[in-house]
Design goal:
By secondary structure, the chain is mostly helical. It folds into two domains: 2-361, no CATH class; 374-494, no CATH class. The chain is built from 23 helices and five strands. It has helices spanning 2-11, 13-35, 41-50, 63-75, 80-104, 107-115, 132-150, 157-172, 177-189, 191-195, 201-222, 226-236, 240-244, 246-253, 255-263, 280-304, 320-327, 334-361, 363-366, 376-390, 403-410, 433-439, 454-457, and strands spanning 398-401, 418-421, 441-446, 463-467, 479-486. A five-stranded mixed beta sheet has the order 2-1-3-5-4, covered by helices on one side. α1 crosses α2 (13-35) and α2 (13-35) runs parallel beside α6 (107-115). The termini are far apart.
Length: 506
């Protein structure tokens, strides 16, 4: 019966693609929803900034935060809907990759190239953490698709789409500029694309992209390009040796894909009736768009002697599967298509299952709870109750602390309080010292006191609370949170000046 269902799916690759999409959403939404009692770190960042409805923050564009806040407002739920949203971004990437694969080769090879992405680390384990890397993915894939179609079809529609995708990618993360540089290289390098420079299409793209990006640019100018300063500081915290291993590390992150290919026989001998290889121009496009951004980023790191984190490559390898299929095109036949598709399903189930086990039971081995094991609901209720008792029920308008600890308190509130990020007004422009004086604040932290919070808690009583991870044995360490209450209604001159220092990034 299973074989019959699979055969019917593979008769129409689009139908099989929808099955792959459904499996991706199901496995990678359920695994974190069932294993987490608190959201991943970057998700709390988005909750903290999204409720402010600002274009950007000191680190990045605020697009993921805006998406997350919109979902919270529409559903009334903070938590598991974010996991579904993240997977929608992932599978939109899959759909764009499949469409591009059909253009460059055929539907069967496009399906194989898309299915292989189930074995690329960036499309599995990190995806429950909806962040700027995940938000970039569909826009990168759509940019590649639109660029190919714009330079190979008549009319201006795909030039407009290209402008929208390029502009939107810069809303997801400013590092998308690397992809746009690579797209520009293609326009100058490829003969057919170069001819289009004499038509209105590329200029329409430039105008549309500039219009989409304009609010971000105005914000950057108005805020002294804070994210660029942050990026420089972020790189300075990463060892230069990580730059030297940046590209080799990507091979490791592709290891499950290589295993999947091996099991499906894609490294075997040529098929008896092989599909024709893609034309040279199509292969050049795949190699440039699929590998160019990572190579350029590595070059920047080497020249500037700065560090690179492997996670920054997350949106750069959406074409890995198509590249593999293009290079091994002669190995593709119906038997291997079936084996690859089945293997992709098994890979999704296996890796998501390992993720669930790690998040749900891993702390029993290490004795140290992961962030996802923190009892978010209990933390929220306990700290809000402490605030109410010590302020005679005053509304909680402001929480000061890092976004992780602060957001845990109120992420599920209908009207969450403002977060004074790290106690620093310079990176929390929605608040001013007078707001703190008028409304007071709940100051929270765990472990040691962050330097930026020290002025806020000086000479004020500190309180400690101990929490147990859900269902943890006694060998698992407790979570200790500290808090200070700044009573509302105090004079502004009674509050110390918070330092205008961006804390070291995590």
């Amino acid at each position: 019966m299973t074989s019959s269902i699979l055969a019917r799916l593979l008769e129409r690759p689009e139908r099989a693609l929808w099955a792959l999409i459904a499996a991706q959403i199901a496995f990678w939404s359920l695994a974190p929803a069932l294993s987490h009692s608190a959201p991943p770190l970057d998700v709390t960042d988005q909750y903290a900034t999204g409720r402010e409805w600002v274009v950007a923050i000191f680190k990045h564009p605020n697009f993921p935060g805006l998406v997350q806040e919109a979902v919270r407002v529409l559903t009334g739920i903070a938590g598991w809907p974010t996991y579904v949203v993240s997977q929608i971004f992932v599978v939109t990437t899959f759909a764009a990759v499949y469409a591009l694969g059909k253009d460059l080769m055929d539907a069967q090879r496009a399906l194989v190239g898309t299915a292989l992405l189930a074995g690329v680390y960036f499309f599995s384990w990190p995806t429950p953490e909806f962040n700027h890397n995940v938000a970039q993915m569909p826009f990168w894939a759509l940019t590649s698709l639109a660029l190919w179609r714009a330079t190979n079809r008549q009319g201006i529609w795909w030039w407009v789409v290209l402008g929208l995708a390029a502009g939107a990618s810069m809303w997801a993360k400013y590092s998308s500029a690397i992809l746009l540089v690579v797209a520009g290289i293609w326009m100058l390098w490829d003969g057919e694309a170069r001819k289009r420079l004499l038509t209105p299409g590329p200029w329409i793209t430039a105008i549309v992209a500039a219009a989409v990006f304009a609010p971000q640019l105005l914000w950057l100018i108005d805020h002294d390009f804070q994210p660029m300063t942050y990026a420089a500081r972020r790189s300075s915290t990463v060892a230069f040796t990580d730059t030297l291993t940046f590209l080799p590390a990507q091979l490791v992150y592709h290891a499950p894909m290589f295993v999947l290919m091996l099991c499906a026989g894609l490294f075997g001998r040529a098929a008896e009736q092989p599909a024709p290889p893609p034309e040279r121009r199509a292969l050049n496009f795949l190699l440039l768009m699929g590998l160019g951004p990572a190579i350029i980023l590595t070059g920047i790191g080497l020249v500037s002697m700065s560090g690179l984190r492997t996670a920054w490559a997350a949106p750069m390898f959406n074409l890995s599967g198509l590249i593999a299929v293009a290079l091994l095109s002669t190995r593709i036949d119906p038997r291997r298509v079936k084996a690859t598709f089945m293997g992709a399903g098994l890979t999704l189930a296996l890796i998501s299952g390992l993720y669930f086990a790690h998040m749900r039971y891993g702390y029993e081995i290490t004795g140290k709870p992961l962030r996802g094991n923190w009892p978010q609901t209990e933390i929220s209720e306990t700290l809000k109750r402490a605030w109410a008792e010590q302020t005679n029920g005053a509304p909680l308008h402001i929480i000061a602390g890092d976004t992780w600890n602060a957001t845990l308190v109120t992420m599920s509130d209908g009207a969450p309080p403002h977060i004074l990020i790290n106690g620093d007004f310079s990176i929390s422009p929605w608040l001013q010292p007078n707001d703190l004086a008028r409304h007071g604040a709940l100051v929270v932290w765990s472990d040691r006191v962050p330097d930026t919070l020290a002025p806020l808690i000086a000479n004020r009583p500190q309180h400690d609370l101990e929490f147990r991870p859900p269902n943890a044995s006694t060998r698992v360490r407790s979570i200790v949170m500290h808090y200070v209450i700044i009573a509302p209604g105090g004079p502004a001159n009674a509050l110390p000046d918070a330092p205008s220092v961006v804390s070291e990034p995590r």
